Structure formats: C-alpha cells, structure tokens
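*** Backbone structure tokens ***
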Amino acid sequence: MQIGDLVSGFFEDPVLVAIVAILLGFVFFVYLFLRRTAKGFKEGMNQGRQ
C-alpha cells in the first residue's frame, strides 16, 4: 500500500472527508476562541493596573 493509494481512497469517501473537515473547523474555532479570551483577559489586567 502506497501513500497515493491512501490519499485517493480518503477522498473517495465523502463521509470521512466531512468528518475530518468538521474536526478541523472545530479545532480552528477553539483556537480562535481561546486566543480571544486570553487577549481580553490580558487587556483587562492592563486596564486594571491603570
């Protein structure tokens, strides 16, 4: 079994592609959410010192 066979087999299954796309979207959303939360916390701490 070669890498090309795995890749072509992966793209032939739309359910698997959809699951991977949803998982990647979820991970990206969580990253953006945590980044926004940390940035807001940092700005709040800086404003509290002033």
About this structure: The first helix runs from residue 3 to 12.
